[in-house]
Amino acid sequence: VGEVCLFDSQSGQLAVGAWRSTDGVKLPDTTNAVIDMRRDLAGWIARERKPLLFAEAPPAEHAELARLTEARVGLTALSGYMGVPLLAGQELVGTLSLFAQPPTTFHEHELGILQNIANQATIAIRNAAQVRAREAVLKSQIAELKIEVDRARRDTQVSEVTESEYFQQLKSRV
User: Fold this and answer.
1) What's the pLDDT tens digit per position in 20-56?
2) At what angle do helices 63-73 and 41-48 cross, to 10 degrees?
3) In whole angstroms, what is the distance from residue 52 CA to residue 44 CA?
4) What is the Cα–Cα distance from 75 to 1, expressed in whole angstroms?
5) d(CA 87, CA 98)
6) Residue 81: beta bridge partners?
7) What is the dihedral of CA 5, 63, 24, 102, to 10 degrees?
8) pTM of the model
9) 3-state secondary structure at position 129
């Protein structure tokens, strides 16, 4: 199972942005679920800004977080976990995590591969956020232009009426 969590710097929250399970593994859809940063492995990675790997059962210091994460994700037993922070310089963008169930485990060299993927994912996520921000600005500008076009149209229509010969005749009678 793989999961990307995104960090919202304004709210300080980490939420599931996307997840994927292997064929045949039915899990609840956790997309957009907010993660308790103190009670989840992804939260630990986000707080510490460090990668985390355990190839078999979680070490004692992460056992409770692993149990809570298993419950959130819908897994029954982890045989391995690896996760890395998504960082743009020192800025936290999110986390990328992989969960293994028996008989699969993870190894140290795979963590390096995941970090390389995370670096590329961070760039893609930042680019997507910039595009969304530009779209929001453009939509706002379009709305303002529509208002201005409507005003200009109204002014033109009023001008056409008030400058018409008929209106001028009525005006002179009054």
Assistant:
1) 887 667 788 888 899 999 999 999 999 999 999 998 7
2) 120
3) 9
4) 9
5) 17
6) 54, 99
7) 130
8) 0.75
9) helix
